[in-house]
């Protein structure tokens, strides 16, 4: 059984109408009202309502402190019954009190009772509309007539009935009511196309198109409000314009936060890292590879192994060790030069020694030379980056800007992630990010990353890629003013877009248009063709050859000097 709560506080009741009771009962039944609140002065109207409304039990809630009564959460939907006054300031006071204590006003219906037949309904209904109550009707007790606005936010009124009011309430025809949306150049969510050859509609973006579809579906008027300078704005700059009633909503995506009003979160926005796609390795990099520690360890291990095995054989056959000679033989095998075996060995011992020198010396050195030759003549790339550990191993920093700070504080991040951040100015960040500079990584929402990576459409080998594992998840919402009268309709609209898959399509449809508008540029097309040799292709081979001639020249001069 539903409990009906009543609160009494301000006005004196004068008349009572059975027609009014029938109106209340019909609204109560058709709207499936959970709570009825009478906002009046005495108990007379309260008692008559309680004995005539088609409800079960009644509970009278009278407190000295009205904030405590209104502070109690009311079961929605709520029907509020109050009285009109000839004094507009008193009507403003009532609307202000209701506005203060009712947060989800789009779920409330208000019935205004006019006992005096002298109130300007248009002005009062507009007053409640501006206070965030979209569903308000006035009852003229003298004529037993209901009045409502002709359309959402209209200053004109028309006589109505409960049936007509309910039909208009659910129809959602906004009759050209303006929807003021903040636009700026922040692709892919919002941007302004200056050329009519690219787009006849200058206002584009994944979020802007959602608002335009909303206005089209509900017969409203989309009004674009330019942000100063058409630069990217922060959440707090958006809220300042919303609270000053300059706009109704902001045409961008924000992180869900309970500190301000926003749309229902229907889409999970993944926070991704855009990392280099395995950069090409500079050929001079291999000039130092033979001097790496593990190469010397491998060579030393081979020499020691050959010397130990050969010396062991020598010890078994001749009774003494000959380590020094076999160390020289091992080095000769690695250098692929001719060698002379020690004292005559048996056929089996000689075969074993030759196999040992061949496999550990000639073969390994030949494989190394072949591998080095392939590296010098073939374009090679670094290992693909798939994790934060790969970024750290490659010493790649993640460029970070001011707009990323708040989002990062919401979705958090590991210490391993934060140590890779490099904070830079927004302009510097934009230059590197828009050009897909592969020397850095970038972090942002996934829809933005898809937009930036769209530049690689004509590349055979991409420069950047999204790491497969997101680093965080956020709810993607739009910010609008508190208790926006169209909040319920807009939430229903984005819910339908999500269910039908159109929201995903709107996100991806703007990529081509944004690039053609000049906010990004396609990277030069890569064709399948034979490229001529460049200086870097022969520079490494020339350095190795020159180094060899220098070493041989030094050795030749040394032999001449020692010979004399």
Automatic annotation (TrEMBL):
Top-level taxon in the UniProt lineage: Eukaryota
Keyword presence, Glycoprotein: yes
Keywords: Cell membrane, Glycoprotein, Membrane, Receptor, Signal, Transmembrane, Transmembrane helix
Transmembrane regions: 294-313, 320-339, 351-376, 538-562
Entry's localization field: Cell membrane
One Gene Ontology cellular component: plasma membrane
GO BP: Golgi organization; protein secretion
InterPro entries per UniProt: Insect_Ionotropic_Sensory_Rcpt
Membrane topology: Multi-pass membrane protein
Signal sequence annotation: 1-18
UniProt-recorded name of the protein: Ionotropic glutamate receptor C-terminal domain-containing protein
């Amino acid at each position: 059984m539903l409990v009906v709560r009543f609160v009494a506080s301000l006005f004196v009741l004068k008349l009572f109408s059975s027609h009014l009771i029938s109106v209340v009962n019909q609204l109560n039944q058709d709207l499936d009202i959970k709570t009825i609140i009478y906002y009046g002065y005495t108990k007379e109207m309260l008692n008559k309502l309680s004995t005539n409304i088609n409800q079960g039990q009644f509970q009278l809630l009278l407190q000295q402190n009205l904030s405590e009564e209104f502070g109690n959460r009311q079961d929605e939907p709520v029907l509020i019954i109050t009285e009109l006054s000839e004094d507009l300031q008193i009507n403003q006071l009532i609307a202000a009190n209701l506005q203060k204590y009712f947060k989800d006003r789009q779920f409330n219906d208000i019935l205004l009772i006019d006992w005096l037949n002298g109130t300007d309904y248009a002005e009062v209904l507009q007053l409640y509309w501006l206070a965030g109550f979209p569903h308000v009707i006035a009852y003229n007790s003298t004529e037993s007539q209901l009045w409502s606005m002709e359309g959402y936010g209209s200053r004109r009124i028309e006589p109505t009935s409960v049936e007509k009011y309910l039909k208009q309430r659910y129809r959602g025809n906004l009759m050209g009511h303006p929807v003021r949306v903040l636009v700026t150049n922040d692709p892919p969510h919002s941007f302004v196309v200056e050329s009519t050859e690219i787009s006849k509609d200058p206002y584009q973006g994944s979020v802007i198109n959602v608002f335009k579809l909303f206005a089209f579906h509900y017969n409203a008027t989309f009004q674009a409000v330019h942000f100063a300078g058409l630069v990217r704005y922060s959440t707090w700059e958006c809220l300042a314009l919303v609270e000053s009633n300059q706009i109704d909503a902001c045409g961008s995506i924000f992180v869900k936060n309970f500190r301000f009003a926003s749309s229902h979160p229907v889409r999970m926005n993944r926070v991704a890292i855009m990392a280099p796609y395995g950069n090409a390795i500079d050929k001079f990099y291999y000039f130092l590879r033979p001097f790496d520690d593990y190469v010397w360890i491998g060579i030393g291990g081979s020499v020691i192994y050959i010397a130990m095995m050969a010396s062991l054989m020598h010890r078994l056959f001749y009774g003494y060790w000959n380590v020094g000679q076999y160390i020289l033989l091992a080095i000769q095998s690695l250098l692929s030069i001719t060698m002379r075996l020690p004292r005559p060995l048996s056929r089996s011992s000689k075969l074993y020694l030759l196999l040992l020198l061949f496999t550990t010396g000639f073969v390994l050195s030949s494989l190394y030379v072949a591998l080095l030759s392939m590296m010098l003549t073939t374009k090679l790339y670094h290992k693909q980056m798939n994790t934060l550990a790969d970024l750290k191993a490659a010493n790649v920093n993640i460029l970070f800007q001011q707009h990323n700070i708040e989002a990062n504080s919401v979705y958090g991040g590991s210490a391993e992630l934060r140590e890779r951040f490099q904070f830079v100015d927004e302009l510097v960040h934009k230059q590197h990010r828009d050009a897909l500079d592969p020397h850095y990584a970038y972090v942002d929402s996934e829809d933005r990353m898809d937009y930036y990576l769209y530049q690689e459409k004509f590349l055979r080998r991409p420069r950047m890629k999204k790491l497969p594992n997101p680093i965080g998840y956020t709810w993607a919402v739009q910010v609008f003013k508190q208790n926006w009268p169209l909040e319920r309709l807009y939430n229903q609209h984005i819910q339908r877009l999500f269910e039908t898959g159109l929201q995903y399509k709107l996100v991806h449809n703007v990529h081509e248009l944004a690039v053609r508008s000049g906010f990004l540029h396609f990277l030069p097309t890569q064709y399948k063709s034979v490229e001529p040799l460049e200086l870097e292709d022969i520079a490494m081979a020339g350095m190795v050859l020159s180094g060899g001639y220098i070493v041989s020249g030094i050795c030749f001069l040394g032999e001449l000097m020692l010979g004399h």
